[in-house]
Specification:
This protein is mainly α and 140 residues long. 76% of the residues lie in helices and 0% in strands. The chain contains 5 helices and no strands.
Length: 140
């Protein structure tokens, strides 16, 4: 396991612990987000609430995927590990929410989490390939 970058793994673990803490109560639900958004005048809160909540899903699970990818970047399986790890955490989060009063689990959130991780890692892969190509052109 010499190819693991432990500092990235610790950052990922901290993110997962924070995610668990946030989803353990009914404080971070759609209704509490809607109350916060209701102070913005002339903005319909329901569509904005949906966008804010789903954007949070995208950011968190994209972040988890990138952290896992960087942690295992020396492995040929780093992209798969990043996607599978983020997808697993997303699934575990939804199962966890199912058992919390005031929270609910949604298959659509699991799909969104997994898709966000896959898309982010695709962008990372494309960026790495472009960087390699530019470096190849520069030093040829």
């Amino acid at each position: 396991m010499a190819m693991v970058r432990w500092h990235w793994l610790l950052i990922g673990a901290a993110l997962v612990i924070a995610l668990y803490a946030l989803t353990s109560s009914s404080v971070a639900t759609g209704s509490s987000t809607e109350r916060i958004l209701s102070i913005i005048p002339l903005v319909p809160t329901e569509p904005l609430n949906f966008v804010v909540r789903k954007t949070a899903h995208i950011m968190v699970f994209s972040g988890i995927a990138l952290i896992l990818w960087r942690t295992f970047s020396k492995s040929k399986w780093s992209y798969v590990i990043g996607w599978a790890g983020a997808s697993f955490v997303g699934l575990a989060d939804e199962v966890h929410q199912f058992f919390i009063n005031g929270r609910s689990a949604a298959v659509s959130d699991v799909i969104l989490n997994s898709s966000a991780a896959a898309f982010t890692l695709f962008i990372a892969f494309a960026a790495v390939q472009i960087i390699h190509f530019v470096n190849w052109l520069r030093y040829e």
